[in-house]
Amino acid sequence: EILPFSDLAGRVSRGRIVSAVHMHVLGDAPAQIVVLFDEAQAQRFVKIFMDHADSDGPISEHIVESTIKEVANIIGGAYLNALTSLTGITLIASVPTVSTGTAESAFLALMDVPPDQDVFYVQTGFEKELPMISGEFILIPEAASIGPLLSVFGL
């Protein structure tokens, strides 16, 4: 879905605690990527990936952070590869950074994004075994990058 940046607040629940992974996109269409996971789901996701789904024991914060960054890197890379295949535009993700807090705080670093800036919003998920773990992929292209990205869709 393509929507104005100002409408993101309505898509991501206010006050929700999330793990937010941020990456810059370099190349022919500079942008930013944010991948959001509910914090509780992120913890469960790490346990499933580490085959500790039935364990109640804590997992090191560094392991959790590293795993969440890698999962977001995989998601971001998949979407960027798809866009590259569709558009022929070179898109390269930077090293991810992660923060945990409210969904609102995840966007504080993006305050320089104009409210009417178009963003790509995709709800996404993984399923190894039930329950499915969902996340949100947000691509925020720089103003000059929007045209080349949308032109492939006839927009």
The low-pLDDT segments are: none
Quote the distance from N terminus to C terminus: 13 Å
Q: Give the fraction of residues assigned to helices.
A: 25-40%
Mean pLDDT: 81
Query: What is the H-and-E element order?
Result: EHEEHHEEHEEH
The main pleated sheet reads as: 7 strands, antiparallel
Number of strands: 7
By DSSP (H or I, 4+ residues per run), the number of helices equals 5
Binned strand content: 25-35%
Structural class: alpha+beta
Radius of gyration: 16 Å
> What sort of overall outline do the alpha carbons produce when their principal axes are compared?
globular
Summary, kept brief:
With 155 residues, this protein is an alpha+beta fold.
What does this protein look like?
The chain is α+β, with helices and mostly antiparallel strands and 155 residues long. It has helices at residues 8-11, 39-49, 61-87, 103-106, 143-151; strands spanning 2-4, 17-27, 31-38, 91-93, 97-102, 118-126, 133-141. Strands 1, 2, 3, 4, 5, 6 and 7 form a 7-stranded antiparallel sheet that branches. The model has no long low-confidence stretch (mean pLDDT 81). It starts with a strand and ends with a helix. The longest helix has 27 residues, at 61-87.
